[in-house]
Amino acid sequence: MWESNNLAGVVVGGFLGIAGAISSGVLFQIWQDRQKRINLRSALAGELRAILTVVDERRVLPALENIIDHIKMHQTVLFFPVWLGDMHSLVFRQNADKLGSLPAPLPERVVAVHYRIGSVALELQMLFEASQGRGGWLGEQWRSSWQRCLQQHEQVFTLADEVRGLTAEVINELEGV
User: Fold this and answer.
1) pTM for this predicted structure
2) Mean pLDDT throughout 80-89?
Protein backbone atom coordinates (compact mmCIF):
# COMPACT_ATOMS: atom_id res chain seq x y z
CA MET A 1 0.00 0.00 0.00
CA TRP A 2 2.78 2.36 0.91
CA GLU A 3 4.57 1.68 -2.37
CA SER A 4 1.48 2.51 -4.49
CA ASN A 5 0.97 5.79 -2.57
CA ASN A 6 4.63 6.57 -3.00
CA LEU A 7 4.45 5.80 -6.71
CA ALA A 8 1.33 7.96 -7.08
CA GLY A 9 3.16 10.79 -5.32
CA VAL A 10 6.11 10.46 -7.65
CA VAL A 11 3.85 10.42 -10.72
CA VAL A 12 1.83 13.43 -9.48
CA GLY A 13 5.04 15.23 -8.55
CA GLY A 14 6.48 14.52 -12.00
CA PHE A 15 3.37 15.87 -13.69
CA LEU A 16 3.42 18.95 -11.48
CA GLY A 17 7.11 19.46 -12.28
CA ILE A 18 6.49 19.18 -16.00
CA ALA A 19 3.45 21.49 -15.77
CA GLY A 20 5.50 23.98 -13.76
CA ALA A 21 8.32 23.95 -16.27
CA ILE A 22 5.93 24.43 -19.19
CA SER A 23 3.92 27.16 -17.47
CA SER A 24 7.02 29.03 -16.34
CA GLY A 25 8.28 28.98 -19.94
CA VAL A 26 4.92 30.23 -21.20
CA LEU A 27 4.75 32.90 -18.49
CA PHE A 28 8.28 34.01 -19.28
CA GLN A 29 7.39 34.26 -22.99
CA ILE A 30 4.28 36.30 -22.16
CA TRP A 31 6.36 38.60 -19.96
CA GLN A 32 9.05 38.91 -22.65
CA ASP A 33 6.48 39.73 -25.37
CA ARG A 34 4.93 42.35 -23.10
CA GLN A 35 8.35 43.94 -22.52
CA LYS A 36 8.99 44.04 -26.27
CA ARG A 37 5.66 45.81 -26.84
CA ILE A 38 6.46 48.32 -24.10
CA ASN A 39 9.89 48.96 -25.61
CA LEU A 40 8.44 49.31 -29.11
CA ARG A 41 5.87 51.83 -27.91
CA SER A 42 8.58 53.74 -26.08
CA ALA A 43 10.92 53.78 -29.09
CA LEU A 44 8.19 54.95 -31.47
CA ALA A 45 7.05 57.64 -29.04
CA GLY A 46 10.67 58.72 -28.58
CA GLU A 47 11.18 59.06 -32.32
CA LEU A 48 8.01 61.12 -32.71
CA ARG A 49 8.94 63.29 -29.73
CA ALA A 50 12.40 63.87 -31.24
CA ILE A 51 10.77 64.98 -34.50
CA LEU A 52 8.57 67.47 -32.64
CA THR A 53 11.59 68.72 -30.70
CA VAL A 54 13.55 69.35 -33.89
CA VAL A 55 10.56 71.10 -35.47
CA ASP A 56 10.22 73.31 -32.39
CA GLU A 57 13.94 74.00 -31.98
CA ARG A 58 14.35 74.88 -35.65
CA ARG A 59 11.16 76.95 -35.43
CA VAL A 60 9.90 75.38 -38.65
CA LEU A 61 6.28 76.55 -38.40
CA PRO A 62 7.07 80.17 -37.44
CA ALA A 63 9.71 80.28 -40.19
CA LEU A 64 7.16 79.03 -42.73
CA GLU A 65 4.73 81.70 -41.51
CA ASN A 66 7.40 84.37 -41.96
CA ILE A 67 8.09 83.20 -45.52
CA ILE A 68 4.35 83.28 -46.28
CA ASP A 69 4.01 86.79 -44.83
CA HIS A 70 7.03 87.98 -46.83
CA ILE A 71 5.66 86.54 -50.08
CA LYS A 72 2.29 88.20 -49.46
CA MET A 73 3.79 91.55 -48.48
CA HIS A 74 6.34 91.81 -51.29
CA GLN A 75 4.54 89.71 -53.91
CA THR A 76 7.79 88.02 -54.72
CA VAL A 77 9.05 84.46 -54.91
CA LEU A 78 10.85 83.28 -51.78
CA PHE A 79 11.51 79.73 -50.64
CA PHE A 80 11.75 77.98 -47.31
CA PRO A 81 15.48 77.16 -47.17
CA VAL A 82 15.53 73.98 -45.08
CA TRP A 83 16.86 70.61 -46.15
CA LEU A 84 15.55 67.56 -44.31
CA GLY A 85 17.13 64.15 -44.51
CA ASP A 86 15.39 60.83 -44.11
CA MET A 87 16.35 60.14 -40.49
CA HIS A 88 12.86 61.13 -39.30
CA SER A 89 11.53 57.57 -39.67
CA LEU A 90 14.49 55.34 -38.83
CA VAL A 91 12.91 53.65 -35.77
CA PHE A 92 9.61 53.29 -37.59
CA ARG A 93 11.18 51.69 -40.67
CA GLN A 94 13.31 49.30 -38.62
CA ASN A 95 10.32 48.16 -36.56
CA ALA A 96 7.45 48.25 -39.06
CA ASP A 97 7.25 44.44 -38.99
CA LYS A 98 6.54 44.56 -35.23
CA LEU A 99 3.63 47.02 -35.36
CA GLY A 100 1.16 44.12 -35.40
CA SER A 101 2.08 43.34 -31.80
CA LEU A 102 0.48 46.62 -30.71
CA PRO A 103 -3.25 46.83 -29.95
CA ALA A 104 -5.52 48.18 -32.69
CA PRO A 105 -5.91 50.93 -33.83
CA LEU A 106 -2.41 51.95 -32.72
CA PRO A 107 -0.52 50.35 -35.65
CA GLU A 108 -2.76 52.21 -38.11
CA ARG A 109 -2.25 55.51 -36.28
CA VAL A 110 1.54 55.06 -36.15
CA VAL A 111 1.69 54.29 -39.88
CA ALA A 112 -0.58 57.24 -40.68
CA VAL A 113 1.47 59.76 -38.71
CA HIS A 114 4.75 58.55 -40.21
CA TYR A 115 3.40 58.78 -43.75
CA ARG A 116 2.10 62.27 -43.03
CA ILE A 117 5.47 63.30 -41.56
CA GLY A 118 7.14 61.86 -44.65
CA SER A 119 4.79 63.90 -46.82
CA VAL A 120 5.73 67.13 -45.03
CA ALA A 121 9.43 66.25 -45.33
CA LEU A 122 9.00 65.61 -49.05
CA GLU A 123 7.14 68.89 -49.59
CA LEU A 124 9.86 70.81 -47.72
CA GLN A 125 12.54 69.02 -49.75
CA MET A 126 10.73 69.98 -52.96
CA LEU A 127 10.63 73.64 -51.87
CA PHE A 128 14.32 73.51 -51.05
CA GLU A 129 15.14 72.00 -54.43
CA ALA A 130 13.05 74.65 -56.18
CA SER A 131 15.04 77.32 -54.31
CA GLN A 132 18.22 75.77 -55.75
CA GLY A 133 16.93 75.97 -59.33
CA ARG A 134 15.96 72.30 -59.38
CA GLY A 135 12.64 70.54 -58.97
CA GLY A 136 11.71 70.05 -62.60
CA TRP A 137 8.46 71.40 -63.95
CA LEU A 138 6.97 71.98 -60.47
CA GLY A 139 10.01 73.89 -59.29
CA GLU A 140 9.81 76.06 -62.38
CA GLN A 141 6.12 76.76 -61.74
CA TRP A 142 6.86 77.89 -58.19
CA ARG A 143 9.84 80.00 -59.25
CA SER A 144 7.91 81.74 -62.04
CA SER A 145 4.87 82.87 -60.01
CA TRP A 146 4.76 84.38 -56.54
CA GLN A 147 1.11 83.26 -56.27
CA ARG A 148 2.03 79.62 -56.93
CA CYS A 149 4.97 79.89 -54.59
CA LEU A 150 2.67 81.34 -51.91
CA GLN A 151 0.05 78.65 -52.49
CA GLN A 152 2.62 75.88 -52.09
CA HIS A 153 4.05 77.37 -48.89
CA GLU A 154 0.56 77.78 -47.44
CA GLN A 155 -0.27 74.19 -48.33
CA VAL A 156 2.92 72.94 -46.66
CA PHE A 157 2.26 75.08 -43.57
CA THR A 158 -1.29 73.72 -43.22
CA LEU A 159 -0.12 70.14 -43.64
CA ALA A 160 2.78 70.60 -41.19
CA ASP A 161 0.50 72.17 -38.59
CA GLU A 162 -2.03 69.31 -38.90
CA VAL A 163 0.73 66.71 -38.69
CA ARG A 164 2.18 68.37 -35.60
CA GLY A 165 -1.14 67.93 -33.80
CA LEU A 166 -1.57 64.36 -35.02
CA THR A 167 1.97 63.51 -33.90
CA ALA A 168 1.27 64.76 -30.39
CA GLU A 169 -1.92 62.67 -30.26
CA VAL A 170 -0.11 59.50 -31.38
CA ILE A 171 2.63 60.07 -28.80
CA ASN A 172 -0.05 60.19 -26.11
CA GLU A 173 -1.64 57.01 -27.46
CA LEU A 174 1.73 55.22 -27.51
CA GLU A 175 2.35 56.26 -23.94
CA GLY A 176 -1.12 55.20 -22.89
CA VAL A 177 -2.13 58.70 -21.82
Assistant:
1) 0.79
2) 74
